[in-house]
Amino acid sequence: MPDQPEEKRGSAGPRAIAETAARLTRRTLGKHGFTEAAMVTEWPIIVGSLLGEASMPLRIRFPRGERSGGTLAIRVASGAMATQIQHQEPLLIQRINGYFGYAAVARLSITQGPVPRQPRHRPPAVPQLTGEQEQDLATQLRDVEDPELKSVLAALGRHLAARR
Q: pTM for this structure?
């Protein structure tokens, strides 16, 4: 049909960055056994911020022909952290497998070495409002009874008012 425009490859509209990143990193991470980029990118979320800052996953090796029950190699920054991870191995394996939804890891292999520092995300500064803006915000939130909800809504209101 000559009246309809041809569809171009790759012009399906906006795509999630995670989808593109997964496609771009699949080959490199796959060489180290990581079929999921999230094992590397979300390591601090999976194991907790303290362990996540002092350790990093290096590779995962599966038994021949399997995609579960693997050995996850982890690099840690210090001997003290290596000892802590050894003691928490069953819990860490449970958290990793729970995150991915299947028994990907059966054991950990720990080595000591330098771990790159993760950039710390600072929370944005609390914007300063004028007295009139603060009064207006307090008036809008006066009927909210839950103190936690009121605090969150007040912070949101301050940020929105400061953007104007």
A: 0.53
If DSSP states are collapsed to H, E and C, what string results for 3-19?
A: CCCCCCCCCCCCCCHHH
Q: Of 76, 55, 72, 74, whose CA–CA distance to 107 is shortest?
A: 72
Nearest to 55 by CA among 73, 33, 68, 37: 73
10-residue mean pLDDT profile of the chain (164 residues): values are 51 58 54 59 85 88 88 91 92 90 91 80 70 87 89 85 73
Q: Are strands 55-61 and 105-112 parallel, antiparallel or unpaired?
A: unpaired
Q: What angle do CA 146, 122, 161 make, to 5 degrees?
A: 55
